[in-house]
Design goal:
38% of the residues lie in helices and 15% in strands. The protein is of the alpha+beta class and 192 residues long. It has a five-stranded antiparallel beta sheet with strand order 2-1-5-4-3. α3 runs antiparallel to α5 (174-191).
Length: 192
């Protein structure tokens, strides 16, 4: 007995039925996706949308732009000198005049030392004794900037050589140092 071969019309009917079932299944699937508010995505879009579904919608953020920072800090300017301040008038002694000198020029400290390293007068800066001992015996021709905050100058008073030790947080100009020397000479002329 030979196997029965189905007729071609039966095969066509079965194939058409199978295609119809696939079309109906696709329509049902697409409608269910559209009701959920999604469109079918493919590949990485589908995995990305499923992975990030729990996150809220991103809001635009205005960027904060920082102002430019200068490459080097601005150098502090030397404050203007009050011309009307006298370092000798109304002062009680040489120490009071020396403090007035430091205040007049906004100095951190001022010390007048002898060549053997002793304090002649000071504005009261804590390092005055050490400054006198360390810088007092130096031989100077002109003013000398020892460090960023220490400047030295020499002057003679009645045959005695003295060293002025200026401590300042700001850089001093040559003119400002000359003015300090002049006021120091005025103090010495008044009190010595």
């Amino acid at each position: 007995m030979t196997p029965a071969v189905p007729e071609p019309t039966v095969l066509i009917s079965l194939g058409a039925g199978f295609v119809i079932v696939l079309i109906i299944t696709a329509i049902v699937y697409l409608r269910s996706r559209s009701r959920a508010g999604r469109t079918p995505a493919t590949g990485t879009e589908a995995s990305r949308s499923r992975r990030l579904d729990y996150q809220p919608v991103a809001r635009p953020v205005t960027p904060f732009i920082r102002p430019p920072v200068p490459s080097h800090p601005p150098s502090p300017a030397t404050p203007p000198m009050p011309a009307s301040v006298s370092v000798v008038d109304g002062r009680t002694d040489i120490a009071d005049s020396t403090r007035a000198l430091a205040d007049k020029y906004s100095l951190a400290g001022f010390t007048l030392a002898t060549t053997d390293g002793l304090i002649f007068s000071t504005s009261g800066h804590p390092a005055g004794t050490e400054d006198a001992a360390h810088y007092g015996g130096r031989a100077l021709q002109e003013e000398e900037h020892v460090s960023a905050e220490v400047t030295l100058f020499t002057l003679n008073h009645q045959g005695t050589k003295l060293t002025g030790i200026i401590r300042s947080e700001k850089s001093l100009t040559r003119d400002r140092i000359r003015q300090i020397e002049s006021d120091t000479q005025e103090i010495l002329n008044r009190w010595i």
